[in-house]
Amino acid sequence: AGYRTSTAANAEDALALLQRQRPDLILLDVGLPGMDGLEALRRIHQEGDIPIIFVTARRREFDEVLSLELGADGYITKPFNPRDLALRVERKLQVKALEDELRRQKEEMSAIVFSAADAILRVGADNHIQFCNPAAQRLFNCANPPVGQHYDDICKHCPALELGFQQIKPDANSQISGYEVEMDNGKTIFVNVAAV
Questions:
Q1: Do residues 44 and 52 touch, judged by C-beta distance below 8 A?
Q2: Least enclosed by CB within 10 Å: which of 78, 91, 165, 173?
């Protein structure tokens, strides 16, 4: 399948190898000499989020359920079709790549939201604040993020918003100083702090 691989004869060697290399995926046998694969799985998960597929001769349902409960990403029993294993590896690596990309995008978006000059609030359908970036926290003169507080109560701390968000109007240059984005379960509010 075109993958670079490293092998280890037992769990102890695999854990030592893990200190030197960061694999994209691990194929792990349950019935290893010395430390078994289930204990190795526990220890590998302490090192980070690496997908693990168990490859084993054991056919007991207990092993499959226990391995999945412990965080294995898949389970295949010997003898197996090599193409089946290759497809499972390929699929898991695709999922991992998507998860990594989503994590990267989430981190990038968080950096943008938290560094934005505009105040950004997420208000639930019950009018309680679910999220508040630092600019919104400053706008509303809050020492701590006002998550969980009622939006109307927070507006009292900002003279420009005494009557609530509806008071934000376009300025003389017809530039929008604030707007809402309605959603099924609430709304997200953006306020141009410089215009308030």
A1: yes
A2: 173
